[in-house]
Amino acid sequence: MQRTQEMTSVQPDWEKFYPRPISEKIPFFSKDGRVYDCLFAQQLNRDLLTLLFRTADRLREVTQHKDGADYVSGLLSDKRAMLYFAQPSTRTFMSFLNAAHILGVKTSEIRDSSTSSEVKGETPEDTVRTFSSYVDMIIMRHPTPGFVEKTAWLMNRTGRPVPIISGGSGKDQHPTQALLDVYTLYRSFNGDIDNKHIVMVGDLKRGRTVRSLSYLMKNYNKMSLSFVSPKEFKMEADILDFLKRHNIPYQETEDFKGVLKTADAIYMTRIQDEHDKAGESKKVDYSPFYFRQENLKDIKKTCVILHPLPRRHEIEVSVDDDPRAVFWRQERNGMWARAALMAYIFGVDGKIR
Ligand code: CP
Description:
CATH superfamily of the largest domain: Aspartate/ornithine carbamoyltransferase
Number of domains: 2
Bound molecules: phosphoric acid mono(formamide)ester
Number of strands: 11
Shape: globular
Largest sheet: 5 strands, parallel
Helix content: 25-40%
Oligomer: single chain
Radius of gyration: 20 Å
Structural class: alpha/beta
Distance between the termini: 23 Å
Strand content: 5-15%
CATH class of the largest domain: Alpha Beta
């Protein structure tokens, strides 16, 4: 791909670039007005979301038959992608891997940085630059806040940039999880996401999925949010400020049962104890934030229950049999939504719809 006007414009050093508002940084991660590096949920506007959902719907239809699957798998058979996951993952990794294969993209992977030359003292920056020598796209998950963005920033300053897709960055963001979450709402509500009450439950302070999903709510009209969490793990102020700026009403509460009746979607999350500094999660009673079989009678017939997964105890397993529990479908939706995103970034989405 050619370097673009946006990418080649003079950029300050990383230390000056990183703290800038995301709205100012988005052009640097765009090409010809389209998303090039997918790093922030704020890059996904309503038109783009709709386009990706239609592409994902079409992909799942077309690939039901061998002719269609063969056609789609030829679209990007000249491309290679690297999956670099420096944090554990099942769903994001597997769904991106299979999304790539649906489109014919050849893949390579590193899932444990102890198997890369980082152990010989190579910097993470040089390591990701090395990946880019061999592939046309890097999909990465990294525990260090901002490192996925820094990789994209670095790549865009080289003579051979490749697009970077975030598969989860520190505690900051998980934009493609938010993409598949909203795709699941789109499919659950027959394409009509406006005017919904979304209830997010659990460890909202340290969950990157709820942060990214909150950002996407600005794309829809008359949305309202309820944040249900232990007081220790309330949603962070930057997200609340964002909602205020976009006139999206929200409430914060510990009264889970109280908000269930009016929910159109309930988004459950697990406790994020991998971010503990001194075992603080063990001091919190998380059980009031579990969705149990008995709660099913309190929710609307049309309400849907989502979870980014993995689950621990926060949704009783017997709830899975209820048709309103859509988290297993949500998981599979991730593969189609991510395939649509890859097709879009490589510019072949128009050949699918
Ligand atoms: N939802 C999600 O990101 O799952 P994994 O950690 O298994 O990828």
